[in-house]
Amino acid sequence: MAREDDKKREKPSPRFHGRVEGTGRVCAEPGCDAAGEFRAPPAEGAGYGAEGPRPYRWFCLDHVRAFNARYNFFNGMSAEEIHAQQRPFSGWERETRAFAHSGADVPPKWADFSDPLDAIGARFRRATAGEEQRKDGRPLSALDRRSLKVLGLAIDSDRRGLRTRYAELVRKYHPDRNGGDRSFEAKLQEVIAAYTQLKGAAAFA
Fold first, then answer.
1. Residue 171 phi/psi, 5° resolution?
2. Is the pTM of this model over 0.70?
3. Where are the CATH 1.10.287 domain residues in the chain?
4. Which of 52, 59, 77, 165 is most buried (CB neighbours < 10 A)?
C-alpha cells in the first residue's frame, strides 16, 4: 500500500502539469519528432475561424516551455484593442442576470400565521415608518435606497430605467470620455457598485 502511495506522489495528476498522454500527436515545432502532449493556442489566436473554433497546437515539453516564454497575448491587436483590454473596468459593460433577493426585508405574509397582538406587523411598520414605499409594493433595503440616490433614480424606477441611467453615468464618468482624466474614477466606482446592488435587488428582479 505504501509503495502505491509513493508512485502516486512521484507522478503528478495530469490536471496539474498539463500533459495529455497518448494523443498520438507529434510536436508542432518544425523538425521535432517528440510527442505533442502539451496544448497551446492556435497560431492565429484563440477564437473562431470560418469553420468553427480554431484547433490548438500541441508541443513537447521543451517546446511548449519555449512557446510560453515568448507568447504575447496582445500580438496582432491594434492600439485601440490593446487599450480596451487594459481598461480598469473592462467587462463591466456586459449585462448579467439578476438573482432573486434573499427576502430578508420582505413584509410578512399575513395569511401564513396568526398575529392577534400585532407584534410582528407593528415591528415591520416601525422599521419602515417614514420611508417612501414603491407603488408596486416591492421592498427596498437601506442599501437599495442609498444606491438609488447614488444613481439619481426615483424610488419607483424599473429595470429598464436602471440600465439606461447606468449607461448614461458610465459614459459621463469614464476616463475615456474625459480625455483620460482619472479624477472621475471614484465616482465611476460608486456608480458601478450601486448598479450591481440594484440589479440583484427584489425591486428590480
1. -65, -40
2. no
3. 92-128+138-204
4. 59
